[in-house]
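Handout, section B. The chain below has 122 residues.
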Amino acid sequence: MMKYSPINVNEKFSKFADQWSPKIVAQMNEYHIKLAKIEGDFIWHSHVGTDETFFVVEGEMRIDFRDGCVHLKKGDLFVVPKGTEHKPFSEKECFVLLIEPAGVRNTGDVLNEKTAPDDFWI
């Protein structure tokens, strides 16, 4: 018999402290659902072949674009269109749920010290 259990995102957030390093909590078809803790500035980057969904679970954040920005608070969701250069930022620690295709690198087309492994499950 199949065991059916929910995924508690609050419990999953309690399992890690590192920031800007998304953790996979579920897979839906070819998409990963990831959790990340963020604080401060990230880097300018884009995802050429895919949109990227941000859902704020706790806290507030901003996503900067070259021609503006969007402010998100707890409960807000925003989809960054594919190929759009963006830079996430949060003044204080913010908990974010991300939805993107499996294998998408958090820094998009950039490789640097903020590039996280794209296959880390919790």
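Note. Helices lie at 9-13. Compare this with the example in section A.
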